[in-house]
Design brief:
Length: 422
Amino acid sequence: MTVVIGFFILLMLGLPIFSVVLICASAGVLLYSSVSLQVISQQIFTGLDSTTLLAVPFFIVAGAIASKGKTSECLLKCMNVIFGRLPGGPVIATIATCAFFAAISGSSMATVVAVGGLMIPALKEEGYPEEMNVGAVCSGGTLGILIPPSAPMVMFCVAMGTSVGKQFMAGFVPGILVAIAWCIYVLLKCSKDKLGSRVRYTGQEALKIFIQGIPALLFPVIVLGSIYSGWATPTEAAAISTIYVLLIEKFVYKTLKFQNVVQYFYDGVVQAATLLLIIGSATALSYLITTKQIPAMAVEAISNLVSSQAMLILVVMIALFIAGCFVDTIALIVILAPILVPLLNLYQVDLIHFGIMAVLASQVGYISPPFGTNLFVTMQVSGKNFGFVAKSIIPYILILIVMTLLICFVPQISLFLPGLMK
């Protein structure tokens, strides 16, 4: 109980989550165990001793290069050719670009920066309400962690012991469905209120745009195709993604300079180190939790309160929605993995399906006040204040919550494609 109270106090004081976890794990070993504190460093090493985790910095660097280069601009033009003629077409193209860029960056923030910087001013010029534009970019950015590849998914798989390939495959259909739901809202809203203008291209212009966009469009095909064909592991595919985007930005789009590459790699390593510290610290805390038989006690206590799989899913998702407003949901899952895995197994909840549920809950957290990461990134990109961005996200977050609950209670939406894998 002392450790639990200390955890929440330190969290409210604003300490980084990895340091909160590490302090609590160390305090727990000192107070409730007879082993040496040396076990903490051993467990941190054990948690980080995984080649799969090497995928995280590579995906982060690839996303940073693509967002700062011409890849995102080419994707956006291609999406405008496809959707620009529809009511609300440019806004729909923005969401579609977020979905496609998600298959390149694996990062929510990179998607907001790449697409938002281009589209928020452009949509305003086309006559679309700023609230709709800002909301579309802020919410669309969350697709970066649902549609593979996804750095948070890699963290989840390492913590839960699931297949990265199957987890990536499970994200496709839910990601596309969420994007479609947002697009339908924009289409109906713009049709009803006759908002904005449409974008039209001649056949020659459209052909030129698609030819220019071929290298960007091939990005997810090459990276994800290498995984599902068995030609590369997720870690190797992450390295391929970095090399590929370096080559097309340097030699095809010619936007890349050497000094920028150094900065991108530095930023990527720093971000990855932060995520990996959470994994290492969580492993140390997991050791304490497991040795004290807390998972068994938690399973017994919760099984007495929860009578069905559906009730368990509902309780867990409500808890993740609330927690996601304050801390990163995936980080929370990593910390609680020793308790969650036996509980989910008891109620026969597929761990791959739960991975998608956790990512969806994390998406909700990314755009929920008061600490939603995407809200702050969108503020910087759009130049709007927090209140404006938070208000603009309301219809999108309501749709996301509805879609999340649908996907939670219809497992085949997530599990159909992984079920086709050997």
